[in-house]
Design goal:
Blueprint (H helix, E strand, L loop, with lengths): L14 H17 L2 H8 L15 H10 L17 H14 L5 H11 L5 H11 L4 E4 L15 E3 L2 E10 L6 E8 L2 E8 L5 E5 L9 E10 L5 E4 L1 H39 L1 E2 L2 E2 L4 H30 L1 H28 L12 H13 L4 H14 L1
Parallel strand pairs: 1-4
Antiparallel strand pairs: 2-3, 3-7, 4-5, 5-8, 6-7, 9-10
Helix pairs in contact: 1-4, 4-7, 5-7, 7-8, 7-9, 7-10, 8-9, 9-10, 9-11
């Protein structure tokens, strides 16, 4: 764990961080405009479309070539070793583009692996540097993200059981799975093509992501795949928790910015009663309120991201504050973005539905606002 230091000015968001964010924004503007995103993920409007995984593998390879996959990988493992604030800025742009990809899942896993301090973990970080993607698999059948509640069991060198709600499962090369052996939590790296592993896609509301249940049937593992065990596993997961919440909050803030700007532009151009609808207080006031809520969420987001590197003891507390407020902001803003588009906002052809659905998925992921505040209260009272 990093040593606690005073937070730098502007949360440490300097020229390098701004440059990365600007490059990402330009990349998505040039390569994934919203009409192209809609054609990619919403070509099939059937209610029976199932757990389709729609993404542009060529565009993903460009992202890998840019080095973004290894942004959080420490320099000791050949990565860029960028600050959590820089990574959060990058993920904001991913959210604003609603980019279908396993970047966030891989970044989440990176924070676990670099907290493990084991040779297999370093080897797994090396895979990420080589361009391989990861997703962390932990949820039990009830959707719990608690670190000790996985349904997977390791006995006699094989893993059995199921793990649920795994993000980007159809896109990644490897899974970092949370399992139990002799009542101890263990973390193993598993190849997505491992014999005995079945990936069963889920049908979810979010068209820009995919999710699946992993079923393990005598999947063989050995010591070279074990990245952490027992207390080391729990310590690594506890250390990485803040980063997961920060990156998800960054995605939500980025998507919310797209919702705000798109709806504001519609209000400036759509005319009703011989005036643009933005003239009316019933339209302009909700937009201003949404802007304020995004700013509040973004402020908490970067405070939490900065704490990961400078105030690690406070990082989880700040991150849960950020996720709770981000949930509130996007809950309000998503409803208004559809409502203020009028009748067209409810149609499949209107792009706002892509972001509404992404935000609905993000709100539930890792726990809603009520859950975050309950966890936050326990953290505050325990300290």
């Amino acid at each position: 764990m990093a040593q606690a230091t005073a937070q730098p000015k502007n949360f440490g968001f300097g020229e390098d961080e701004r440059a990365l964010k600007d490059i990402a924004k330009k990349f998505f503007q040039d390569n994934l405009p919203t009409n192209q995103l809609h054609s990619l993920v919403a070509a099939d409007s059937s209610a029976m479309r199932g757990g389709q995984c729609c993404w542009d593998l060529g565009l993903w390879q460009q992202v890998v070539n840019l080095g973004w996959l290894m942004a959080a990988v420490p320099e000791r493992a050949g990565g860029l070793g960028m600050s959590a604030v820089a990574v959060a800025g990058l993920v904001e742009e991913v959210g604003q583009a609603a980019f279908p990809c396993p970047l966030i899942s891989t970044l989440n896993t990176t924070y676990i692996l670099k907290a493990c301090n084991s040779q297999p973990a370093e080897q797994a970080l090396g895979y990420i540097v080589q361009g391989k993607s990861f997703s962390y698999a932990s949820c039990n059948r009830h959707g719990s993200w608690e670190h000790i509640e996985s349904d997977l069991v390791v006995e006699n060198g094989v893993i059995n059981g199921s793990v649920y709600f795994v993000q980007d499962a159809q896109k990644v090369d490897y899974f970092l799975v949370n399992a139990k052996t002799d009542s101890k939590v263990v973390l193993y790296v598993i190849d997505a093509n491992a014999q005995g592993l079945a990936i069963n896609p889920n049908s979810i509301v979010d068209l820009t992501r995919d999710q699946a249940t992993l079923v393990f049937n005598d999947v063989a593992v050995d010591a070279s795949q074990l990245v952490a065990s027992g207390a080391e596993s729990l310590n690594a997961l506890a250390t990485a928790t803040a980063a997961w919440l920060v990156l998800l909050s960054a995605d939500m803030c980025g998507a919310a910015e797209w919702q705000l700007q798109t709806t504001a532009e519609y209000a400036r151009t759509r005319q009703q009663f011989d005036r643009t609808i933005g003239f009316f207080q019933a339209v302009k006031h909700p937009l201003v309120e949404f802007m304020i809520e995004i700013d509040q969420a973004r402020s908490l987001l970067y405070n939490a991201a900065c704490a990961i590197d400078h105030e690690p003891d406070m990082a989880e507390q700040y991150a849960r504050m950020a996720k709770a407020v981000a949930n509130d902001a996007v809950g309000f803003g998503s409803r208004k973005s559809v409502q203020l588009h009028g009748g067209i906002g409810f149609t499949w052809e209107c792009y706002v539905h892509l972001y509404l659905k992404r935000q609905l998925h993000s709100q539930a992921l890792l726990g809603d606002a009520t859950y975050q505040r309950e966890k936050l209260a326990k953290l505050v009272l325990s300290s």
